[in-house]
Records
---
Amino acid sequence: MTTFTGPEICKLEAHEVVALLRKGELSSEDLIAASEARLAQVEPAVNAVPVVCADRAREAATTLQGDADHPGWLAGLPIGIKDLTPVAGVRTTFGTKALADNIPKESDPIVTRLEARGGVVMGKTNTPEFGAGANTFNDVFGATLNPWNTRMNAGGSSGGAAVSLATGSLWLSHGSDHGGSLRTPAAYCGIVGLRPSMGLCASASVTGFIGEGVQGPMARSVTDCALFLDAMAGFEPRAPLSFPAPDTPYQEAVKRADTKLRIGFAPDLGGYAPVDADMARYLARAMTAIEGAGATVDEACPDLTDLERTYHVIRGGMWAANFIKAPKSLTQHFKPTLAENLSFGLSLTAEDIANAQLSRSLIYDNMRAFLERYDVLACPVVGNMPHVQTEEWVSEVGGQTLTGYMDWLRFTFLATVAGMPAISVPVGLSDDGMPVGLQLIGPPRGEAKLLAAARAVEMAMGGPLGPIDPVTPKS
């Protein structure tokens, strides 16, 4: 039997570790110990997993070991859970002062599903307050830093999750997404993040019929992302939009990946979103490489009229519903951008909402027709490379001055409005060694097709990138 050191274990991909767990060549205890050691090594530099629950993980692993039934997709693999999602007995703060000492008595259904399928919760990953914004910092735990350059923004709101994967402290980490909350940090940290269809990875919510905020898998590779999606997916009666997982595992689709893709490439979504010159150059380079591997790439984009306003109305309605009955003891601590979100949501009129629903339906129809001609729509995840972490949000992209803190995230709005799955996959490094992410959007409930396309892109680009040690510039 092969003997692995802790550092060697941390470098393995999740599907490789699960295979070794099934063979008995590794144990959950081996993985917990390796994860603990790696967290101790990297966390002072990046602050990605501020709450570690190793003792709880060991208890869960012991229970799994004593279970005569099949241990599920994950077979005892330690995972991270974003700090917006309750885990029973584990500090869950939502990144807000009012809940700094909150310890839930019950886990969210997605956590219980993952645990039932062999996942062992190792810790909670950092997030901005209530997940608002693409820069992961809060008044409870502070800022999470990009491991490729710790001066830089790691993205958000699933920034801690992405960094935990990029540094090799965890093999899989749960995220969530409304305005790119798992796609942006995936792009900035050189890992894979999938925003699935509404209802596929069901979670509990007081606003269960508002489904645009979704739970999703984050991983170091597309194969690992498919494994995690298989573990997450499933019907949950407490979530009204929930639907069952398909009969064929998503991992099977990845195995059939073919680089002969039909790709519609929209470098600025038909002029909708600005792009910095360096980002445009990196993605054009990637598309050339993907085309060289056998894909057909056409520069094309569907009609996305009124996407901007439609997204903001949908998002505003979510914030209003989430917090309209919240006590002042909770909302009084909101950072200014979060308070503005709530105020905007409460200001919406019936006419605003009606027009947004009509526009949304038209955008969906245009995207559906477009994706009958192409396997995926490819576009940036975000129009710029990471800025310094101390810059809360990016105010200028492609020479355009932006006024709202969500403006620089416009490329992520489309999949959310259309309700279609989207994935961020690494496509190489920038001139100064930072990861570059490409967004692929798939057809309705087309996760299998999307994952296969992402794997084809990953193969064409020589990925995955693999875990790194945090890089802290000298000056």
---
Amino acid sequence: MSSVTYETQRAALADVVAIPVTPFAEDGTVDQDTHRALLRRLLDGGVRTLTPNGNTGEFYALTPAERQLVTELTMDEAGDRSVVLVGVGHDVPTAVASARHAREAGAQMVMVHQPVHPYVSDTGWVDYHRAIAEAVPELGVVPYLRNASLPGARLAELADACPNVIGVKYAVPDAARFAAFARDAGLDRFVWVAGLAEPYAPSYFSAGATGFTSGLVNVAPAVSLNMLDALRSGDYAAAMKVWEQIRRFEELRAAGASANNVTVVKEALASLGLCRRDVRAPSRVLPEDERAEVAAIASGWSI
């Protein structure tokens, strides 16, 4: 693959990496028209990197056919307006099939969800990602890393075998551990994406991240892009002003081991009349007495 293509992919990771929601219709199916409208809203708002089938998109609650549909809808709406990073995972054959489908649909990258197996060895982690990366050598591959015990040397080993592993979505809530891991793996070798979104972006950027994921961006693209602009210019005071603005929203999402992570985003969108609040089990809709606070936050942002 040409270095030019990799540069496009790497640049797309050094940005706000939006994780779109998957809206559901009243009958429980994916609401395709609303999905398209929400994607257009993100693109019109200046978002240039989209991750269909991410956790904010309820990846683990979607069927294989629905994950394919979400990928295809996203590719169709994105066109040449954004780079698309498709979430893949589950068992190796399923992840490989999803990655190949993403390639056929025209995606440029895949994000490999953290293995959900209860027993993950360091070398097994490498084997899992290598099997997926080798199946789609044309695509950039981004491991989604939530394993605090994995040493950086394992990521370097994976990239030695698979040069298409170009970035990492790092989602361990420990900025010091991130700083050490990135340097052990190769700080300049990968694009480091702060995988815990805006609350962690300032601390992770100070340690070498150049992009961050976002679910909040579904609600208020300008807010997320304002934080990115501040971080890119090294203006941490301005970035923390945005941090203060989004703090309560993100606290609500993080409460109870992130029980309402997607719920709060969809509730905010519902309060703005943009989609239904429905989420799938094991998530749940927000109780009625908690909805007003989310609506007040969303209406307070200049949407």
